[in-house]
Amino acid sequence: MKLKILVASLLFFLSAGYVNAQSLYFPPVTGTSWDTISPVSLGWCPDKIDTLNQYLQDKNTKSFIVLKDGKIVIESYFGTFTQDSIWYWASAGKSLTAFLAGVAQEQGLFNINDTVANYLGPGWTSCAPADEQKITIRNQLSMTTGFNDSVPDPDCTDDTCLVCVAPAGSRWAYHNAPYHLVHDVLETSSGTSLNLYTFGTLGIQTGITGAWIDHIFYSKTRAMARFGLLTLAHGIWNNDTILHDQNYYQQMINSSQSINPSYGYLWWLNGKGSFMVPQSQFLFPGDLVPNAPADMFAALGKNDQKIYIVPSQNLVVVRMGDNSGNFPFLAISSFDNELWAKLNDVFCGTLSIGETENDNDINFYPNPSDGNFSIAGINPEIETIIVLVDQLGRRVFSSRIGNESISAPQLNSGIYSAFIEEGNYLKPIRNKVVIVK
After folding, report:
1. Chain centre to alpha carbon of residue 413
2. Cβ-Cβ contacts under 8 Å for 106 (sequence gap 6 or more)
3. Does residue 411 form part of some domain?
């Protein structure tokens, strides 16, 4: 009976992937030909595209692409950046690594439940041998190795930099070093370089070109869009299946653990109701990107490198560029939600989005300040408790607001997230970032 259920489930996933891929257009593997589609034919608002492009330019964007059903609807380049320019993916490349790991497992190179020591050898960490043995490739992909992520150099992969502070699987922490070592596992198990493995796995079949340099993937913008399209199609490119294992695919783009439900296997997930961010152990209530569709998942990198994928709409959105200037984390930033507000204007209500917070009009000013803020949008007749949380998730300030202002001169310079306290629940404010000079 269990075997029949497993076979039925596998057939369902394969069928779903096949139907999705069949409804998509795929550009030729070679050359620059790529079919386009008019935003008017989609019921979008073309008059909003100029506003979107101006916003993108103001936010230091170098390139931007929107695909619908695989076809290009919007493609913009800014400054001296062109279709042939090459840029880095930063941590958005983590999601490419997750895809490669799925193919490697399918090829029998490893099982993600294997202990990492099988490939890197004993003593690859400074943890006790019994604790080290419990760290698996799955833990690397889900950011649950249990290592201390507050070490001076989070990119350091020396054993002395890999310090266990919790059992594997019990703590989520965004940490580059164990991710980088996934590349070592791939190279050891495949017997070839990461670049050759990537080209042999994806490049020939899909036209995705680029190169890994010091764990960072560099490519043209359209290569990034090709990867987004490949992932949207469940690992299928036209009639060529790159990733057959749909069980792994579903694990990759769904919650990989319960600690941070908005994280899969090196992919960020929207619509999960709560999320964590890099360099913090605080669980924020709400969706990762409230203005985006609830089923959106994303490859996110430092300085706002983005691949957004929306399966319900057959939509891929790619952004490359410098830091937008918004409140930054290493991956997610306030730019994500702002950009999706602009995109929703372009879509003219043709896309459904996830639930958003109600406190749209609450603002702090001046911002930045010296710790003394006025607040607009608070009803002075209703007692409100404002809470400020630092980047480590620590509650550092709370105040009952009666006169629409707060005074917190004791706060150190830094960036804080603002919440309204309701009973035992901290409700995020949409414009929740406050900065103390």
Report:
1. 28
2. 243, 244, 245, 248
3. yes
394-408: pLDDT as tens digits:
678 888 775 567 788
Predicted structure pTM score:
0.80
Domain-ending residue, one of 298, 321, 347 = 347
Cβ proximity of 338 and 279 under 8 Å? no
Tens of pLDDT, residue by residue over 306-350, are: 999 999 999 999 999 999 987 666 788 889 999 999 999 999 977
pLDDT in tens, 164-191: 999 999 999 999 999 999 999 999 999 9
Judge contact between 311 and 254, C-beta under 8 A.
no
The rounded distance, in Å, linking the Cα atoms of 95 and 310 is 15
Computed over its alpha carbons, how large is the radius of gyration of the chain? 22
Residue 353 lies in a domain: no
Same domain, 222 and 319: yes
Domain count, the chain: 2
User: Are 335 and 390 found together in one domain?
Assistant: no
Instruction: At 366, list the tokens.
Output: 């001046």
Identify the domain containing residue 24 by its residue range: 2-93+190-347
Distance of CA 65 to the CA centre of its chain: 17
CATH of the domain at 212: 3.40.710.10
How far from 86 is each of 37, 55, 82, 83, 92, CA to CA, in Å?
25, 22, 9, 8, 15
Residue 292 lies in a domain: yes
Distances (CA, A) of 134 to 158, 266, 270, 421: 18, 20, 29, 39
